[in-house]
Amino acid sequence: MKKRYFLGTIAVAAATLAAGTALAQDNNKFKIGLIIPMTGQQASTGRQIEAAARLYMAQNGDTVAGKKIELIVKDDVATPDVTKRLAQELVVNEKINVMAGFGVTPAALAAAPIATQSKTPLVVMAAATSSITEASPYVVRTSFTLPQASVAMADWAPKNGIKKVVTLVSDYGPGIDAERYFKDRLLFNGGQVVESLRVPLRSPDFAPFLQKVRDIKPDALFVFVPSGAGAAVMKQFLERGMDKAGIKLIGTGDLTDDDQLNDMGDGALGVVTSHHYSAFHPSPMNKKFVEAFEKANKGMRPNFMAVGGYDGMRVIYEALRATKGQGGGEALLAAMKGQIFESPRGPMFIDAQTRDVVHNMYLRKVERKNGQLYNVEFDVIKDMKDPGKSK
Ligand code: DHB
C-alpha cells in the first residue's frame, strides 16, 4: 500500500516535471501549422509549398527572436472538412502560433472561422478567390487573386486582335472570379465573351466542352483551371486541333504552371498567360531562388505555389522578429500588415487595409529557353491591388 502510494507520488511528480519542461520548451517554440494537400488531385500544390517553406527555413535559420520555429505539416487532401478538423486540432492540441498553407479556396474558407475564434493569424499561401481575405480579419494572403490575373489578361487580349472569347473555368470560387472579372473587363475594352463554360473541379473531362468551343470558333479560349490541371487542358486542346482551327489559347498562369509546363511539349509554345510569377522571372533574387530550390529538390521547378509558400514564411518570420518573439495573434497580425519586400516574383506588399497582396501582374508567352519551356515575361502591370476589393 505504502509502496504503491510512494510510486504514485513519484509518477505524479515526474509527470508534473515533464509537463513543466514541455511547457518551458513550448514557450521557446514558435509553431506554424502548415495545412496543405499532400495527396490527391492537388498534391503538387502541397509538395511545392512544403519544399519552399523548408528552403526558406534552411536559408534563414530556424530560430527567430529567441524562438525555435517548428513547422507542423498536415495533409488535408484539399478537403474542407478535413482542413477544419486539422485547424481545430492544431489550435487546441498543438497551440500553434500561426496557421498557413491552404491549397484551395474551400479549405481556406473552412479554416477562417477557427482563425477568428482563436485569434490565430492565417496565412493563405495558395488559394486565390478574392473574398477569402474577407472571411476572417486574421487572414493574410501571399498568393495572388484571380481578379488580378484575369483583368490583366482582359486588358492585353483586345489590343492583340482577340475580341470574341469563350471562357472555360473550374466551377468553384477562383473559376467564378476569373470568369466574371475577365468578362466584365473584356466588355469594357470593346471585346466580348460569347460563351461561359464551367467544368467540374473533381476529375474534369474537358472533351465535350472543347468540342463546343470548336463549334463556336472564337478568336480565343480563356482558361482558368487550378494548379495541376493545366496539362490535361493543353493536351486535349492540341489533340482536337483547336490551335490549327485558328483558336488561340489564353488564360491565367495557372494553365501554364511551371510545375508541369516543361512536359507539355512544343504545342504549348506561344501560349500567352497573365500571372504574378514565372520561374523565368529575370531578377537576381529569383535566379538565386530557383537555383537553390532546384538544388534542394531534384527534378522540381518552383511554381507560383512555391513562391506563395516562400513569401508566406517571410511574412511570418518578420512578424515574429518585429514582435520580438513576445506577440500573440493580434500583435503578429499587426506586424504582418503593411510588410513590403522583394519576392522572387518581384516587389510585393501586404496591403494593411485589405491584408491582401499587391504585386506586379506579368504577361508571359511560352518560349523555349536553354532547351526548356518557360513563361517568358514581355509586359507588366505594376503594383496591382486586388480588383475584387473595390466591389
Ligand atoms: C486555387 C487553387 C489553385 O490551384 C490555383 O491555381 C488557383 C486558385 C483556389 O482554390 O483558390
Automatic annotation (TrEMBL):
Keywords: Signal. CDD domains: PBP1_RPA0985_benzoate-like. Residues 1-24 form the signal peptide. It comes from the Bacteria. SUPFAM superfamilies: Periplasmic binding protein-like I (SSF53822). Residues 30-369 form the Leucine-binding protein domain. InterPro entries: BCAA_transport (IPR051010), Leu-bd (IPR028081), Peripla_BP_I (IPR028082). The keyword Translocase does not apply. Pfam families: Peripla_BP_6 (PF13458). Belongs to the leucine-binding protein family. This is ABC transporter substrate-binding protein. It comes from Polaromonas aquatica.
